[in-house]
Amino acid sequence: MGQIFAEHWAVIHFALILFVTCAQMLVVYVLSDSSKPPAGLGLYTVYFMTALLGWIALTLQQRASMQVGVDLPAVASILNSYILFMAAGQRALIVRGRAILGGICLLACLSVFFLPPRRMFIVQATVTTLFFAGVGILCAWRSWQQRNTGDAIIAGAAVLMVIGMPLSLYQHLRSGDGELAQAMAFGAHSASFALVVIGFLASVLIEYQQHLSHMATQDPLTRLLNRRGLEDALYLSLAHAARHELPTSAIMVDIDHFKKVNDSFGHEIGDQVIRQVADFLRRMSRASDVVARTGGEEYLLVLPDTGLDAARTLAERIRAAISEHPLLADHQRIPVTVSVGVACTTGAVDLDALAQEADRALYLAKRGGRNRVASVESKPVHLSSAAARG
Q1: Which pTM value belongs to this model?
Q2: Do 145 and 236 have their domain in common?
Q3: Distance of CA 212 to the CA centre of its chain
Q4: Of 62, 114, 152, 192, which one has the fewest beta carbons inside 10 Å?
């Protein structure tokens, strides 16, 4: 065993790195075929490939029979750290500092032709520490913004390098023991590379899980909630209403004669109309209101702690705003009206029953001539329209 580690440790280490990188590249290849590849996937792919090339160069240099004149591992280390910085920036959607650090990277790589190995190690340690500090800041920021543990792991890898490389440089300058300093740098690079691989995989998987969660609760066309998302969003509000006997109202909105819009202008324009009506509803609702798309051209607004009169007032404002502002789709002005049904209940809320009551009110509004607001309760049915007021 001692003979194996004494003579072939570099080859064994390279084999492990090759295995990890190939496994990582397989995952990257699968992700690249997805409909929405993760941000930064391309640059992370380049990072993994250049890292593999760097380990190859290091393996060759470590073998006595295959010495290389130029310090290729130092150049690979500098390039790797800069590529990782760019990948982290692309994933965090931050591109500041690329040009300046790119110039530093270029100068550091060119210095390999002019500096002896001892001074080149100083350049390598200093520059890689700078780049990994940037990686740590970017990944920590994205981890906090996106609540993504994978990015936190990559930030941890950066912290390891920010600590390990200065320590190896201190050892190099204090004792002049180049071999020990190189071994310390080698260990820091190996551990950080493994953490970056784990962190990137974890980050992508968490992001993919979040994407699936959004798809399960969000309407892809309008970015409003779907029925499942509506129930999840209202869970606490409905429980609060039940405890305190508070009113909860529902507004059902349906686009009038939507089939004619599709037949006259095409389904693509129809989709734009659906999105624009959704934007109207999103803008006109309060922060506490929950808006969902429950059908093809049908929307449901649930208003916690809101009585019937207040809900009818909002419904009338929605109806008037949409009817008075023709929608612009593909440079065409399309007049659109909506029929609106309103229902209200107090205390414990059966969301299905409340939605059915609002739908029944909507049916009454349509029977009354469309472009109307109707409500249902224990009292008589109320109808209102612009024409009736005229």
Answers
A1: 0.62
A2: no
A3: 11
A4: 114
